[in-house]
Design a protein that fits this description.
The complex is a heterodimer of chains A (112) and B (116). In chain A, 0% of the residues lie in helices and 57% in strands. Chain B has 116 residues and is mostly beta strands. Helices cover 0% and strands 51% of the residues of chain B. Chain B is built from no helices and eleven strands. In chain B, strands 2, 4, 5, 6, 9, 10 and 11 form a seven-stranded mixed beta sheet that branches. Chain B has a four-stranded antiparallel beta sheet with strand order 1-3-8-7, with no helix packed on it. In chain B, a hairpin with a 6-residue loop joins strand 4 and strand 5. The chains are: A mainly beta (112), B mainly beta (116). At the A-B interface, strand 4, strand 5 and strand 10 of A face strand 4, strand 5, strand 9 and strand 10 of B.
Chain lengths: 112, 116
Amino acid sequence: QKEVEQDPGPLSVPEGAIVSLNCTYSNSAFQYFMWYRQYSRKGPELLMYTYSSGNKEDGRFTAQVDKSSKYISLFIRDSQPSDSATYLCAFMFSGGYNKLIFGAGTRLAVHP
Amino acid sequence: EPEVTQTPSHQVTQMGQEVILRCVPISNHLYFYWYRQILGQKVEFLVSFYNNEISEKSEIFDDQFSVERPDGSNFTLKIRSTKLEDSAMYFCASRPLTGGSNQPQHFGDGTRLSIL
């Protein structure tokens, strides 16, 4: 079983749609959960960062963590063409020097 | 907003040559990282660096790789004798010491390394 599984897509949605992006993980030692957005030829840009089960909202973005099911989600409301990018889930252990373990990324295209 | 800066944006090098990739982390950050992303693959951890020494490295980070913080602002990754399979995007990241030990990392836009 892979440590992190993320559907690579591509996912194509019309402008204004609600987008749901998901990752599953197998390592119960992961304590911190992140979503990064990566535009073509750019570095990962931090979108959401959380460490507990439940929901965290920031504008049009909601991150959801279910530690019991080892499942995290990112929801994008009222999606815009500018949201077209690759979305990476990332995980971190507690303590130590905190390397990130990334998913493969999901390519999202929002068309007008 | 402060950002991580990487130079050059694209480096083309002959196989077997040495290459140095440069990064200027965010100024109050004290933990530094290098990651690699081969085309079409996931972002992979290479090495973390704190207090002027390597704190963790992956199996990818073999004897051909080294990191250095030569002054108060730069953080470099050196590949001594490049191989074709070193072709990838290399990302530098940093995070602060303050605010708890588990602050998220902020990434630069990467250096695309092409080995011929």
